[in-house]
Design a protein that fits this description.
Layout (H helix, E strand, L loop, with lengths): L2 E4 L4 E4 L2 E4 L2 E4 L3 H8 L8 E5 L13 E5 L4 H17 L4 E6 L4 H4 L7 E4 L6 E7 L3 H5 L6 H10 L13 H7 L1 H8 L6 E5 L13 H13 L3 E5 L8 H5 L3 E2 L6 H10 L2 E4 L3 H8 L4 E5 L5 H4 L5 E5 L21 H5 L2 H13 L27 H6 L3
Parallel strand pairs: 5-9, 6-7, 6-9, 7-8, 10-11, 10-13, 11-12, 13-14, 14-15
Antiparallel strand pairs: 1-5, 2-3, 3-4
Helix pairs in contact: 2-5, 2-11, 6-10, 7-10, 8-14
C-alpha cells in the first residue's frame, strides 16, 4: 500500500499530479487528491500509511488505528457499524474515527472509539491507517450489499448486529423529544417526516416531486402533520402548502435534525443519510428504494420497512435502462405514495423492531412486463424523446 506524505505548504495537488518540493509525482487515486485538497494538515512531516484491515493482526498492542471515512451522512453511519465490529474483533487495539466535521458529534462517547475528530485534525505519523473512502465502489461489491462489503473488507466475515446506537447529540435528542416537537411547531395529529430527496447519484434515488406532494396530501387527509426535510432549503409548493406541511428544509443543524427525527412518529425517506440516521435512532421509518435494492443499504435494520419495485430491469444501480431522467425512473414511479401511506398506517399498528425489513410490494398494473411508464413531456424533451 502507498504511503502518503503530506507536507504543509510543500505539498499540493494539481491536474492529476502530486507536487512534493516542486517535484511532480503521479497520483492515480482521486480520493487521495480530494484528501489533499481539504488542506489543514499542520504537521510538516505528516505520514499516513493506509493498510488493508487484515494487516491489523500485526499491529502492536495498544496501537491507535485511525479510520478515515468522508462523504455523506449515510457513508459515515454505515462505516461506523463496521468500525465498531472491527473494534470488537481487535480488543487490544484502539480506534479513532476521522470523518466530516458535521458528523463528529454523532459518534462522540462511543466506548469503542478513543477519539472522534474531523479529517483535517488527523496529524502526525500513522503507519496503521484504514481508509474506507469509496472502498465498496472501487472493488465493485457495493452491488451485493454495502454494509456487508464494509464488513468483508474489515472483518472477512458477516456483521452479526448491524444496528448502531449513537451517543452525544443523538442520545440527547432521544432523551428530550420535546425539543424536536418544538421545532416542528403546531400539531394537528401524529407527525410524518417526508425527506424531500437524496442529493447523491444525481437524483436517481428520488421520487418525483408530485409524489412528495401527494404523500403530504394523503397524510393531511388522514390527520397527520406532514414535515418536509432536506438539507437544502426549498419553498413549499402550492400543494404542500395546501396540505399544511411544516417546511424544515435547509433549517436544521445535525443536532436539531436528530431532535426532529426523535420526535417524528414515522419518517419516509429515500436511500439517503436521513434514512440511516432514523434507524440509528431506533425510529420507525419507511424507506423507498429505486435503482438499488434495499439489501445493499439496510441489511439487518430493525426499525425500517423498505419498499422496492423489483422491475424486470432492476437493479440498474443509478444507470437507468428505462430512458427516464432522474426523479422519473420507472422504479421510482412504481413505489406509489398510496403504497407508502399504507405502510405508514401499518407501522402505526405494528411498532418495531421488525424481523423482516422488506415490506411486501405488488407492482402496479401498468408495470407488467414490458415496463413502460409515461415520462412527462418536459422530461422527454430533455431526454431527446
Amino acid at each position: 500500500m502507498p504511503t502518503i506524505v503530506l507536507k504543509r505548504s510543500l505539498t499540493f495537488a494539481d491536474d492529476g499530479f502530486l507536487y512534493r518540493r516542486g517535484v511532480p509525482r503521479v497520483v492515480s487515486d482521486s480520493d487521495y487528491l480530494r484528501l489533499l485538497a481539504m488542506g489543514d494538515f499542520a504537521d510538516p512531516e505528516q505520514e499516513l500509511n493506509a493498510v488493508p484491515p487484515a494487516y491489523l493482526k500485526r499491529a502492536p498492542v495498544g496501537t491507535v488505528i485511525p479510520v478515515i471515512r468522508t462523504g455523506g451522512l449515510g457513508d459515515a453511519l454505515m462505516a461506523a457499524v463496521a468500525i465498531r465490529e472491527t473494534a470488537r474483533r481487535y480488543p487490544l487495539l484502539r480506534f479513532a474515527y476521522f470523518t466530516g466535521a458535521d458528523f463528529v458529534p454523532l459518534f462522540k462517547g462511543h466506548p469503542w472509539l478513543v477519539r472522534v475528530d474531523e479529517l483535517g485534525n488527523l496529524r502526525g505519523r500513522h503507519h496503521w491507517v484504514i481508509d474506507l473512502r469509496g472502498y465498496s465502489e472501487r472493488d465493485g461489491r457495493e452491488r451485493q450489499e454495502r454494509i456487508g462489503c464494509y464488513m468483508r473488507h474489515l472483518l472477512a466475515g458477516d456483521v452479526q448486529d448491524a444496528n448502531l446506537r449513537l451517543h452525544g447529540i443523538a442520545n440527547q435528542a432521544l432523551a428530550n423529544r420535546d425539543r424536536g416537537r418544538s421545532l416542528i411547531g403546531a400539531y394537528r395529529g401524529p407527525a410524518l417526516g417526508i425527506v424531500n430527496g437524496s442529493h447523491s447519484q444525481g437524483g436517481y434515488r428520488n421520487w418525483p416531486m408530485r409524489y412528495v406532494e401527494r404523500l403530504a396530501g394523503l397524510a393531511h387527509d388522514r390527520g397527520w402533520t406532514p414535515v418536509i426535510l432536506d438539507d437544502k432549503h426549498y419553498a413549499l409548493t402550492p400543494k404542500l402548502d395546501a396540505a399544511k406541511a411544516v417546511n424544515l428544509t435547509g433549517r436544521l443543524t445535525m443536532a436539531n435534525l436528530c431532535a426532529v427525527l426523535a420526535a417524528l412518529d414515522v419518517t419516509v425517506s429515500p436511500d439517503t443519510g436521513t434514512f440511516h440516521l432514523a434507524e440509528a435512532l431506533g425510529r420507525p421509518t419507511v424507506g423507498y428504494f429505486t435503482t438499488v435494492p434495499p439489501e445493499v443499504r439496510s441489511h439487518g435494520y430493525a426499525h425500517a420497512r423498505t419498499l422496492y419495485a423489483r422491475l424486470p430491469c432492476s437493479p440498474c444501480y443509478h444507470a437507468p435502462t428505462c430512458g427516464a431522467m432522474a426523479y422519473e425512473t420507472e422504479c421510482a414511479q412504481a413505489v406509489t405514495p398510496e403504497r407508502v401511506m399504507a405502510e405508514v398506517d401499518w407501522m402505526q399498528e405494528n411498532p418495531p423492531p421488525y424481523k423482516d425489513s422488506r415490506a411486501p410490494m405488488e407492482l402496479p398494473r401498468e408495470a407488467a412486463t414490458p415496463v413502460h411508464f409515461r415520462i412527462p413531456e418536459r422530461q422527454a424533451a430533455m431526454a431527446g424523446g
